[in-house]
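Tutorial sheet, problem 5. The two components below are modelled jointly, 512 residues in total.
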Amino acid sequence: MSNGLDIRLADIRRHFGARVVLDGFTAHFAAGEFVAIVGRSGCGKSTLLRLLAGLDAAQGGRLEADAAPLADSREDVRIMYQDARLLPWRKVAENVALGLQGERGRIRALALDALDRVGLADRAEEWPGNLSGGQRQRVALARALVHRPRLLLLDEPLGALDALTRIEMHRLIERVWSEHQFTAVLVTHDVGEAVALADRVLLVEDGRIALDQRVDLPRPRDRGDTAFARLEGRVLHRLLGDGAADREDLRAVA
Amino acid sequence: MKKLSLHGRGVLSWLVPVFVIVAWQVVVQAGWLSTRILPAPSAVLAAGWNLLASGELVEHIGASTARAAVGFAIGGGIGFFFGLINGSNRLAEDLFDTTLQMVRNVPHLALIPLVILWFGIGEEGKIFLVALGVFFPIYLNTFHGIRSVPADLIEMGRSYGLKGGELFREVVLPGALPNILVGVRYALGFTWLTLIVAETISATSGIGYMAMSAREFLQTDVVVLAILMYAALGKFADLAARALERRWLRWNTAFLAA
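Model answer (structure tokens):
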């Protein structure tokens, strides 16, 4: 039984002035599913994530979690940003413990445990300023995990990292996802990353789902694998706009 | 060229000041410079010792320090308060900031005649002037500090469930602190500057008063001593502020590197 939230988005609308970003966006993320959302810049994928995080409000439509309004589940939703957004004036362990309520000793134990999960238990007393970019993102991941989220939102969290660190982070995210069994929504512009991590890759274009591609490759996934490459190629082709235009034709059969 | 050790460099940097003092002593002792214009360092030292022994020096320093502290606390407190509310609330900014910026353009020392009319030469007038001088650096830097806290971090704090007082304590205040402390250092400079002027014009105690009464009796050594006292107190206040910065801004890599 999955610990994740079952998310339904129905007919979501969001426009900024005259610019329509999301126009009747509808999707379903099953509990415990890992969904990646890819698309060109400005396609609405980040807006979608901000709506899910409650950082922005839709102008129409419904966001539901387990058949109740998503807004009731704020405590179960955590987000990892593009930049780690650690408080530079708090030690690593204090950053992880941010927003936890309760007795000091218990909070600290939880924070150290979360740091241990991301392999940074020995850096608990450092200032964030002394960590590398990859380490900072791992701390940010620990900070999200410590709240036992049932929906984890990932807003291009690895965009600024070097290739090797990214692959390490992929493994780490995959591991904690399979351990904690939360629902994960990853926004990324890297199709390879999406195919490596997700159960489903959604390609968003003009505020709608243009392609819903299931990824049934066994984990951990091998990027050198031909099936991997074929899937990555398919999404990429669609993203770049070559190939047939009809959406229904391209909807992959699971 | 051989590099000097850290110790060697420390010694080197004191070479010029020591030379100047020795030269000053020699020039005065040799009679090339009238003691009326500048007494010898030894004479200043002796005057300091005498005043210390009579308890007068401690009394004057105490009076000046008390004025500085009270004025700083009042002006700094009000400046901090307005910086906080104007920095975090647009309505408050619209309501108060323009007025405060207009008042800022009045040099506070220009108010001295008015202040004497209002308060006479009592303590209130001097404390009022110090508070006024301290207000603006604290206000401006607190305001700017709060505004410069990254919106990203505030959003992050909110999405991690921080609200109101907690958000302020964890994110806003620490983020504004580097700027606030810059304001504190400026304000300390203004404190002593204001006191120097205010005490030389109207006072019955304090270092400025000591200097002015010494001038009437042509005690140049005491006048020089008073000037040095102001310098020492200013330096001491600045060191205290830097110590606060070191302690509160340890996280700042710029401070780690320094």
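Marking note: Chain B has one domain: 39-251. Full credit if you identified this.
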